[in-house]
Amino acid sequence: MRHVLTLFLSILLLSCAAQPKWKCDGVTSPDQQLRACITSSGNPAPLNESVVQIHDVNDRVLATDDFRSSTRSNGRNVQKNQWTPDSQFFVFSTASSGGHSPWHWQTYFYSRRSNSFKELDNFTGPIIKSDFTISAPDWIEVTVQGTQSDPSDIVTGHKVKRRLSALH
């Protein structure tokens, strides 16, 4: 019985020691290896501006995307954010801190493989809704500008689905 208790306590201590100690608020990837840290600065929400950083388990910054502006009114702030189930991509939608183009929710993603950020709008067209849907392993569905009868529509739009690993 003493050996079982010793083994149990050893496993418990090792599992606690293996947990990352991130120093920022954020969203941890499903595999627990990366954390997306989002900090806001400037004006109060919804006019704030954001910085997105990807940290590894040792809390080292791997990549940064800075949406702050020198005027504090031309940057962007993060709205919805989520990791893909395979932990390969971190996706987030943004709004203008100055209220410019309130219909346009520029959406970005971090790619673990390339260790870089990319704008999803470049692969889908202008995204008009802050909400997006992610499905396994790395699919994203967004609402973009235009309908069949009105290509300039920014209210209804149409759905577009892309596999993030196929976007370069």
- For the largest sheet, list the strands in their spatial order: 1-2-3-4
Number of domains: 1
Which stretches are poorly predicted, pLDDT < 50 over at least 5 residues? Answer: none
Shape: globular
> The CATH topology is what?
Lipocalin
Count of individual helical segments: 2
Overall pLDDT score = 90
First and last CA, distance: 57 Å
Using DSSP, what is the number of strands?
11
Work out the helicity level: 10-25%
> Would you state the CATH class?
Mainly Beta
Question: Can you walk me through this structure?
Answer:
A hairpin with a 3-residue loop joins strand 9 and strand 10. The relative contact order is 0.13. The model has no long low-confidence stretch (mean pLDDT 90). This protein has a single domain, classed as Lipocalin, CATH 2.40.128. The strands form 3 sheets. Strands 1-2-3-4 form a 4-stranded antiparallel sheet, with no helix packed on it. A 4-stranded antiparallel sheet has the order 5-6-7-8. With 168 residues, the chain is mostly beta strands. It is 12% helix and 40% strand. It contains 2 helices and 11 strands; from the N terminus they run H-E-E-E-E-E-E-E-E-H-E-E-E.
Brief descriptors of the model:
about 170 residues, mainly beta, Lipocalin, four-stranded antiparallel β-sheet, about 10% helix, about 40% strand
Question: What is the strand and helix layout of this fold?
Answer:
Layout: H1 2-17, E1 26-28, E2 34-42, E3 48-56, E4 61-66, E5 76-83, E6 89-96, E7 107-111, E8 116-119, H2 121-124, E9 133-135, E10 139-144, E11 158-163
Antiparallel strand pairs: 1-2, 2-3, 3-4, 5-6, 6-7, 7-8, 9-10, 10-11
